[in-house]
Amino acid sequence: MSPVSTELVSQTTFGWLLTVVTGGFAGLWFVHDFIFLARARNADRSDPVVRDQQFGYVIGMVIGAIGVVGCLRYQGVL
Fold first, then answer.
1. Which letter does DSSP use for residue 71 in this model?
2. What are the residue boundaries of the structural domains of the chain, listed by start?
3. Nearby residues of 45 by Cβ (< 8 Å), 6 or more positions away
4. Is 16 left (phi over 0), alpha (psi -120 to 50) or beta?
5. Is the pTM of this model over 0.70?
């Protein structure tokens, strides 16, 4: 008789689930900030608030890219 497993899913399935959720969230974050940066590109750059927003969107895109690359490296794609 085989031992009964108390795991709901295998470790491989759980790893892929976390990769899809994390990578999907990071990808959406990247796209969201890219769209907002594209909208703000024609704004008045002499306004410090506009420059701060644009900087924040770039940082958000970097964070999103790091998340996607990290997920791809975790799965051995990169």
1. H
2. 23-74
3. 51, 54
4. alpha
5. yes
How many angstroms separate the CA atoms of 25 and 30, rounded? 9
pLDDT tens digits for range 27-47: 999 999 999 999 998 888 888
8 pLDDT tier (thresholds 50, 70, 90):
confident
CB 1 within 8 A of CB 38: no
Residue 77, token pair as written in the block: 């794609």
Q: Which amino acid is at 21?
A: V
Q: Can you tell me whether residue 63 is helix, strand or coil?
A: helix
Q: Which residues of 24-47 are buried (b: 16+ CB within 10 A; e: fewer)?
A: eebeebbeebeebbeeeeeeeeee
